[in-house]
Design brief:
This protein is mostly helical and 138 residues long. It has seven helices and no strands. It has one domain.
């Protein structure tokens, strides 16, 4: 699950970098993908509140570990290719992979003051899109 969440986070990070690269005022800002990985692990208050309402209280570690696993694996590895020690302590490795990823390149940290975003559950987002497409306010 963490791997697939990380894949989604990296898609979002790519979108953030597209905005940075297309916004003249941000192009020389030293924002890197790592900048947004940090923002995902320390999201704005509205996102934190939504995650907690969904029962995700340890969201910082969830996002860090999801990013860490995606920083090292292109595809989820078959469990037969992983050591028993890794499987038992995967979260420690994922934490180290995240730290390695964020320390790999100097970058400016993105803050919630500068970059605002929302988080939607699949069904919630589908209703939002349906409302927008039909011309109704949400």
């Amino acid at each position: 699950m963490l791997f697939f969440l990380g894949r989604d986070v990296f898609r979002w990070i790519d979108q953030c970098m597209e905005v940075v690269l297309r916004t003249p005022a941000l192009q020389e800002s030293d924002y890197k993908p790592q900048s947004f990985a940090g923002l995902a692990a320390s999201p704005p208050v509205t996102v934190r509140e939504k995650l907690v309402s969904w029962g995700v209280t340890d969201y910082a570690n969830v996002f860090r570990r999801a990013v860490g696993l995606n920083a090292i694996f292109a595809e989820p590895p078959d469990s037969a290719h992983l050591s028993e020690g890794f499987l038992k302590e995967y979260y420690r490795y994922a934490d180290m992979f995240y730290r390695g990823y964020t320390e790999a390149e100097p970058h400016r940290m993105a803050s919630e003051r500068e970059f605002r975003f929302e988080l939607y559950a699949s069904g919630e987002y589908a209703k939002l899109l349906e409302s927008e497409w039909s011309g109704h306010e949400h």
